[in-house]
Amino acid sequence: MNTSREVPIVELKHVTKRFGDTVAVDSLDLSLPPGTLFGFIGPNGAGKTTTIKLITGLLQPTAGRVFVNGIDIRHEPERAKRLIGYVPDNPFLYDVLTGREFLRFVGRLYRMDASLVERRIGELFELFQVGSWGDFRAEEYSHGMRQKIVISAALLHQPKLIVIDEPMVGLDPKSIRLVKRILEYQSRMGTAIFMSTHTLAVAEEISSLVGIIDRGRVIAQGTVAELRRLSRERHRTLEDLYLELTTSPEESQREVERWLNMALPPLLREMLRPESRNERVLLDQ
Ligand SMILES: Nc1ncnc2c1ncn2[C@@H]1O[C@H](COP(=O)(O)OP(=O)(O)O)[C@@H](O)[C@H]1O
Ligand SMILES: [Mg+2]
Q: Which residue's CA is minimally distant from atom 18 of ligand 1?
């Protein structure tokens, strides 16, 4: 009945991480109930990857403490890491290994029983529809297939918590949909998920809880419905709120311009200029 007595799956207490003069994570407090699909949203450089590396024990905090399922990752790193499946933002596969060989290798790292590894590989390959690709070398994989194998590797030892850093970057729409479905499915099966993203839409669609981080601080946290309510009180959309919280007006203007510059091929931009439209009209006549 009393959910507050549940041990949080992830708990950060006043966690700070400095790199020289840069404060990447600034006295962060975070507590996630088990089973949460947490979307950790923030612009580039906000401190998402650093937070993730602190949770996975790859970095030590300058100050504060990190607990995974109640275990202090600094004091009992091995025990805590067994509970975590980690998918980094630049996932690594050995090009000369097949997906299946890579998963066997990961199974050995986790000191899993060989027959259990084989069973899990079978289950995961079926779930992710890897098919015969499982026996091709990684050098032949599409980005989407690499992501399937890397996520399979993170799930192999049936972790309580998946930590996944910017899972959708560089994926085509079909693979994005697949990764979303995988995360939702794992979450329904009771695995907690800590997912970072700089894309609001991704977090909004699948997260049960959302945290917005900017300059190393969590500046808003709640369910998507709660954040929507907050944004309705002050703005039209959640995206407006996100942009307002995380960028100054001049920065968001520049952001839009940068995006336009990237998204529109130069020729198209040229055509959209009012004066060149007139030229076209003249040429067409
Ligand atoms: N190893 C490092 N050395 C120095 N500065 C770093 C290092 N890692 C991250 N930073 C800085 O910390 C801040 C947060 O970075 P990061 O956690 O990677 O942000 P995000 O993942 O949200 O884009 C940035 O200013 C970044 O330049
Ligand atoms: Mg990052």
A: 49
